[in-house]
Structures are given as C-alpha cells and as structure tokens.
Amino acid sequence: MTDFTTITACGECCTGCLKKINGECPGCIEADGRVPEWAQSGMCKVHACCKEHNARFCGLCREFPCDKLPQMISWNPEIIKHLSRLRDEYIISDLSDKYEVRTLSEEDIPQVVSLCEKNTLYYQYCPPFVSEQSIRDDMGALPPGKTAADKYYVGFFDEDRLVAVMDLIIAFPNNTTAFIGFFMTDAAVQNKGMGSNIITELCDAMSRLGMKEIRLCWVEGNPQAEHFWHKNGYKETGATNVTETYTAIVARKELRDDN
User: In the CATH hierarchy, which fold is given to the domain comprising 98-254?
Assistant: First the structure.
C-alpha cells in the first residue's frame, strides 16, 4: 500500500532518491516545492499548482486530468495513467479505517448477490430482485456525463467477509458533490451501527477530497431506507426521479470541513 505522505504533487516518491540521500535535494514535500531543479523559477510549477487548487497531488485535483499536465510533467509520458492509479488507490484506501475496502470485480459477484438477496425489503420497493446480471449491470452503470474513472463500486470487508457494498460516483452532479448510487449492508450486521459508521467515514473522506455535499436517492415508501438516511443527516431536496416501477426521493447532506 502506498504511503501518501511521501507522494509529491507530480505523483513521485522522494524516498530512496539518491539526491535526497546524498543531501543534494531536501525533497519536494520538505522544501515546499523549492528544490534545486526549480531554483530559477522559485518553486516547482506542479507543486505550486497543487497548492493553488488545494490538492494533495495532481490526481486529486478537481480539474484532473487537465491540459497542462503533459507539459508540466513531460518526463513521464504515462503521467495520466500513473496519477489515475494513485487517485483510485488514495480514494479507496481513505474510505474506511475500520474495514478493508477494495474495488469489486466479476469474481466478487456471487458474494454481492448473497449479501443483497437477504435484504428482501429493499427489492419489494425497488424491483426487480437481485441477480448476477443485475449486479454486473450495476458495476458498469454510469450517470450522464460521467466515465468509469469517476465510479467506485466497492466492497467493505471484515477480514474475508463482505459486509457492505457501495456504488460511489465522484463529482456528480457537479464537481463538489459525491453521489451514492447504491449502499447495502449484510442483513446479519444491521441495527448495530455498522452502516452508519461506514457512512460517517465516507463523509470524512469526501470532505478531505474537497467535496461539499453527498447526494443519494431512496425509494419512496421504503421505511427502512428513509429512517436510515434521516438518522445519518440526509434531507430531501424536494426533487424526485420517477421510473416505471418506483419513485426515487433525492436527498443530500452538506459536508463540513470538520466532518
């Protein structure tokens, strides 16, 4: 796992660099971007840009990937791919201190179905009932204007046991909003505070990422969903999404800097 305290604005790691070991360079983080290579301009342009945009590194900037990157980090032709990988790792690793979180894949589908099929009340209000194909479809589903780079379909694991599933979209419907498309916990651990703990940690992580609010939907009439999200501070916006089988209530929670 990457130690992000050692990752510079451009996605490099100074640990082990011979110039730093030999005392020729203090390190970009330690010197606040004022290293010998950038002596003429005063500060590394990438470091300065990240400070301006309040981003730990380029991959976490709201404007990533921007047109300036290939020119500013010309020494790495794979910089977009590299920073995207770091971005994904950072976001996922920051979602929880209590559980192991990782992206779910095709091989995880049976576990996801097993978790979901025990939550029968959910599917009474939001048909059809879960299947392997419906989970497969959900893993690839995207809202308008978003790409797979903004989607995190993740599982929360207690040791090897899948205890929760979340479909998270970053920067939707705007650049400072995160959207929960789906969240479900194992029925066996419900009413014990686990779901609320995960959502609290999510709020903290999204606030650190620069998000200002989280939005989501629950199906009108589902008492369990309405109670859970109200308990966790989500309020109806007044908007609804009407489908052929149900009406979804749009809700939001404003994030504070101290979340």
Answer: Aminopeptidase (3.40.630)
